[in-house]
Amino acid sequence: MTALLEVKDLKVRVEEREILHGLTLTVNPGEVHAIMGPNGSGKSTLSHVIAGKPGYEVTDGQILFRGEDLLEMDPDERAAKGVFLAFQYPVEIPGVTTWNFLHTALNAQRKARGESPLTSPEFLKKVRAVAKSLNIPQDMLKRGVNVGFSGGEKKRNEILQMALFEPAVCILDEMDSGLDIDALRVAADGVNALRSPERAMVVITHYQRLLNYIVPDFVHVMSKGRVVKSGGKDLALELEASGYAQFEDAA
Amino acid sequence: MNLALAKNETGRPLSDSFAVARDRLPGTGKVAEARSAAFDAYDRVGLPHRRIEDWKYTDLRALMREVLPLAPAPDAAALKRAAAAVKLQAIKGARRLVLVDGAFAPKLSELDGLEKGLAIRTLREVLEGGDAALQTQLFTPDSANPLVALNSAMMTDGVVIEIANGVVLKQPLQVIHVATGATPAAMFTRSLLRLGKDAGATLVESYIAADGAKVYQAHDSLVVAIGDNSRLDHVRLVEDAREAVNISSAVLTLGAHAHFNTFGMTSGAAVSRYQATIAFAGEHSRVETNGVNLLNGRQHADTTLFMDHAVPHCVSREVFRAVADDRAHSVFQGRIIVRPDAQKTDAKMMTRALLLSDDAEADNKPELEIFADDVTCGHGATTGALDESLLFYLRARGLSEKEAQALLIQAFVGEAIESIVNDDLRELAIAAAQRWLEARS
Ligand SMILES: Nc1ncnc2c1ncn2[C@@H]1O[C@H](COP(=O)(O)OP(=O)(O)OP(=O)(O)O)[C@@H](O)[C@H]1O
Ligand SMILES: [Mg+2]
């Protein structure tokens, strides 16, 4: 079986400084991986490099998506192939309605895959159903992308996109930050609803609590740009109790 | 009249051309005299160049080089091509008035069933007729501006629209300028809109090219008087051929408690200049002007606005957005004068430019001259590139680079387009912006 996502000995620099020092991670279809680790350990950097954000220099290693070299692809190509990143800090785009953005994005992905575009009514139907399942009010879709959204609303908007685009691998960068308990449960339910034998999730979080809702198959601890420990879901409980100090030296 | 003009820096050979053309130009007696005087005023300066302050960024001697010979009247084939081009600009419910190669085209226009209180004549009729007062009004624009003077000398046709007191038109008036010329030529048009008291109207002006029209010059001017308590909504869209020149001037005056809302967008023409003077002649009036330039290649577009606050208690708002790609050059000059009597003036001007390439240029020249002490005036300007983090967010969601840029450009100009009140006209402007965006991808 080819892995869905394989990060092999990845070294990444930002502005002449190495942030990831040889990171390896293998994600198979159907799996849920959690990545935990202290602030600044490189979790978002990893997610950005996977999504194709400019400004990162990969000096060594590989990222393969279904065996294909992901680093050779433009960000939109990756998205169309099924790579999705729910951003830790989703940006605000004034003047572009959420509605228009979602429709344009979905059709761009469909076009890249050689599928026919969704008409407005078809899209409307689809987005309404998804929004409803995530408790997202319709009027949020009429507003500018993330403009004036609360922190929780921004995160829910990310999950909405994930549900709409139906990606193969979902990287969720701190989707729990800024969510209250109820919102967290709704968002986690949304994520769980997308779990399937073909799809994989990489959940980046600081808190074990999220992992009560989205139960991972594997937990990885990142420190200073490397995975320093991997284990089952109990590793998260262990971390909650003892903190990261034990890994600081290992890195 | 197909006199080839030497590419002389002073534009002087035009005088021969004027001498030849004058017999073809409508109007005799006082009108002909006014034309000659205007021509002399133009001829003293010729095409303006960068050493003339007002033309610092738009050196017509370099950009335009010469004034082309007067376009011949359109023949049947030309009218047919014009009709096809006009179709694309159709807006439902508008009264269409079409000028082809500078001549009013009755067959393409709708002159029947004029609402009560609405009168429409052609410029030619008015110049050839005996309405001296109206003729004088037609010559009001300032001949100190050489291109206005040239237009006064050469104006061939246009529409003269009068709206009586108390009449609020439901149908927008849509003036479409179509160029069909297969051979390089210039057209000179002037239109007038007189809005009585307590009246209302919507005016759309579009500048387009029929299939095959490439190198031409559209010289247009507009004279507008908005009466007390009246409102004019105005949209102008310049979608001329990419090798064409468009030089348009407007002089607008507002009575008391009047309202003028105007939106202009230039996405066509190689070289264009829109110069408008808006004068407040009555108190408690309001003007909103919104402008957009969408430029790429080597396009050069200049918008020069002069807001003249001569009386108290008036409000003006100017919002201007420029998008320049490749080696394009956008110019915005906004001059606001608040004269000594114009207390309680509230005048603001905001320009933003978006540069999509390192070689694109946007010049912004605000000029505030304030001679009254109890006023609120201000201006601001920003210039920048597209936000990388927004671009990446969109690309991470599957949009190609061009698609992501297009969405952000739409958003950037959207705020100005939103100022158009009439839904159909807003759609027309959005469609024009869309055409520009699609052409670049
Ligand atoms: N664009 C950048 N320029 C300079 N340094 C950067 C840049 N992006 C990230 N870094 C640095 O890289 C390191 C890793 O940052 P990253 O955001 O990946 O950490 P993180 O694990 O996601 O942290 P957090 O838990 O706080 O979200 C940090 O030291 C950060 O300052
Ligand atoms: Mg982070």
UniProtKB/TrEMBL annotation, chain A:
<feature type="domain" description="ABC transporter">
    <location>
        <begin position="5"/>
        <end position="249"/>
    </location>
</feature>
<dbReference type="InterPro" id="IPR010230">
    <property type="entry name" value="FeS-cluster_ATPase_SufC"/>
</dbReference>
<dbReference type="InterPro" id="IPR027417">
    <property type="entry name" value="P-loop_NTPase"/>
</dbReference>
<dbReference type="InterPro" id="IPR003439">
    <property type="entry name" value="ABC_transporter-like_ATP-bd"/>
</dbReference>
<comment type="similarity">
    <text>Belongs to the ABC transporter superfamily. Ycf16 family.</text>
</comment>
<protein>
    <submittedName>
        <fullName>ABC transporter ATP-binding protein</fullName>
    </submittedName>
</protein>
<keyword id="KW-0547">Nucleotide-binding</keyword>
<dbReference type="GO" id="GO:0016887">
    <property type="term" value="F:ATP hydrolysis activity"/>
</dbReference>
<dbReference type="InterPro" id="IPR017871">
    <property type="entry name" value="ABC_transporter-like_CS"/>
</dbReference>
<dbReference type="Pfam" id="PF00005">
    <property type="entry name" value="ABC_tran"/>
</dbReference>
<keyword id="KW-0067">ATP-binding</keyword>
<comment type="function">
    <text>Involved in beta-(1--&gt;2)glucan export. Transmembrane domains (TMD) form a pore in the inner membrane and the ATP-binding domain (NBD) is responsible for energy generation.</text>
</comment>
<dbReference type="GO" id="GO:0005524">
    <property type="term" value="F:ATP binding"/>
</dbReference>
<dbReference type="InterPro" id="IPR003593">
    <property type="entry name" value="AAA+_ATPase"/>
</dbReference>
Automatic annotation (TrEMBL), chain B:
<comment type="similarity">
    <text>Belongs to the iron-sulfur cluster assembly SufBD family.</text>
</comment>
<feature type="domain" description="SUF system FeS cluster assembly SufBD core">
    <location>
        <begin position="183"/>
        <end position="412"/>
    </location>
</feature>
<dbReference type="InterPro" id="IPR000825">
    <property type="entry name" value="SUF_FeS_clus_asmbl_SufBD_core"/>
</dbReference>
<dbReference type="Pfam" id="PF19295">
    <property type="entry name" value="SufBD_N"/>
</dbReference>
<dbReference type="InterPro" id="IPR037284">
    <property type="entry name" value="SUF_FeS_clus_asmbl_SufBD_sf"/>
</dbReference>
<dbReference type="InterPro" id="IPR055346">
    <property type="entry name" value="Fe-S_cluster_assembly_SufBD"/>
</dbReference>
<feature type="domain" description="SUF system FeS cluster assembly SufBD N-terminal">
    <location>
        <begin position="32"/>
        <end position="175"/>
    </location>
</feature>
<dbReference type="InterPro" id="IPR045595">
    <property type="entry name" value="SufBD_N"/>
</dbReference>
<protein>
    <submittedName>
        <fullName>Fe-S cluster assembly protein SufD</fullName>
    </submittedName>
</protein>
<dbReference type="InterPro" id="IPR011542">
    <property type="entry name" value="SUF_FeS_clus_asmbl_SufD"/>
</dbReference>
<dbReference type="Pfam" id="PF01458">
    <property type="entry name" value="SUFBD_core"/>
</dbReference>
<dbReference type="GO" id="GO:0016226">
    <property type="term" value="P:iron-sulfur cluster assembly"/>
</dbReference>
